[in-house]
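[step 3/7] inverse_fold.run input=structure_tokens len=210
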């Protein structure tokens, strides 16, 4: 499979935020979100087989692994890699755009699934059938760039009863939406969501490999 980078850092998002983690960033993505911060992963990368990926992961002192992208599920062999990581005893999470089916992902994997809001430019690509696959182990992430995005996300939570499926995460697009505004809106609406900032950006900005 094509791999853009494998690196060791702190997890910056979701319920695993702050934990030392090995990141495997796969190459390629069918989406082009307006605010994407990993467009360098759209092309290129290095061809590695799963055994070599595991050997590189083993060099780091953690049992937590996050497979991300781009869109990792755009590579058909991603599901096999996830299973192999679980079989090796790793605590595995997957960061996915929500545009591709997660039905074939190993149930031991924590799936951190985006739902794309209107200002992303890719709202129509949401694969709503994925909602039926989610469990309490998974998480839905909304990355929001405006009040319009916030209202759209709030409506999805209410009409689709998303809080009954799994934990919900709200993040402001870095540099586009004031985090204090988003926090205030969440409090005003009393939404059953977890507010989060991207920890890695607070520490290192947009530095690649962090």
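[step 3/7] decode complete -> sequence:
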């Amino acid at each position: 499979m094509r791999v853009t980078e494998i690196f060791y850092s702190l997890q910056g998002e979701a319920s695993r935020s702050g934990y030392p983690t090995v990141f495997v960033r796969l190459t390629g993505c069918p989406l082009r979100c307006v605010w994407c911060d990993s467009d360098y992963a759209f092309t290129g990368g290095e061809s590695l087989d799963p055994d070599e990926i595991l050997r590189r992961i083993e060099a780091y002192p953690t049992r937590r692994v996050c497979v991300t992208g781009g869109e990792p599920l755009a590579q058909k062999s991603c599901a096999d890699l996830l299973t192999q990581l679980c079989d090796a005893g790793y605590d595995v999470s997957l960061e996915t755009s929500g545009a591709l089916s997660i039905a074939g992902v190993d149930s031991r994997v924590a799936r951190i699934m985006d739902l794309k809001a209107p200002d992303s430019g890719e709202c129509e690509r949401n694969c709503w059938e994925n909602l039926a696959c989610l469990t309490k182990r998974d998480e839905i992430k909304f990355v929001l760039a405006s009040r319009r995005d916030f209202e759209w996300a709030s409506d999805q939570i209410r009409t689709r009863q998303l809080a009954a499926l799994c934990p919900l995460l709200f993040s402001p697009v870095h540099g586009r939406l004031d985090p204090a505004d988003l926090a205030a809106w969440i409090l005003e609406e009393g939404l059953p969501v977890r507010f989060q900032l991207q920890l890695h950006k607070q520490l290192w900005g947009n530095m690649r490999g962090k």
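[step 4/7] annotate
The radius of gyration is 16 Å.
The mean pLDDT is 95.
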